[in-house]
Amino acid sequence: MGFYPPKPDKKKNKTNNCKVSFDEEIWRLYIEIAEKYGVIIEKEYMKLYFNDTEVPVIWESNQTVQELMEEAGKGDIVVQMSMYSDNE
Fold it and tell me: What is the rounded distance in angstroms from the CA atom of residue 85 to the CA atom of residue 69?
């Protein structure tokens, strides 16, 4: 089985590459297997990135995550971070 970008006619980038398709298939299989054994998995999927690296996350089903998803629905949420703070 080969994997291709979700939008093969578009330029490859962090959201349109073979790994994205692979990750989506793995997520689909994960849910399918979990449900086969009676585990209920929230199917809402939100991607978390640090820099350009996608970090796999299984989001809890609670009010905080729901509010985060609503906010993300308006566009990307960008958090500026640094290695050190001013209070060292």
Answer: 28
| Residue of 72, 88, 73, 81 lying closest to 51 (CA atoms) | 81
DSSP 37-49: TT---------EE
Per-residue burial over 31-46, b if 16 or more Cβ lie within 10 Å, else e, is: beeeeeeeeeeeeeee
- Indicate the helix (H) or strand (E) that contains 55: strand 53-55
Question: For residue range 6-47, what is the model confidence (pLDDT) as tens digits?
Answer: 888 999 988 888 988 898 888 888 888 888 998 877 666 667
pTM of the model: 0.47
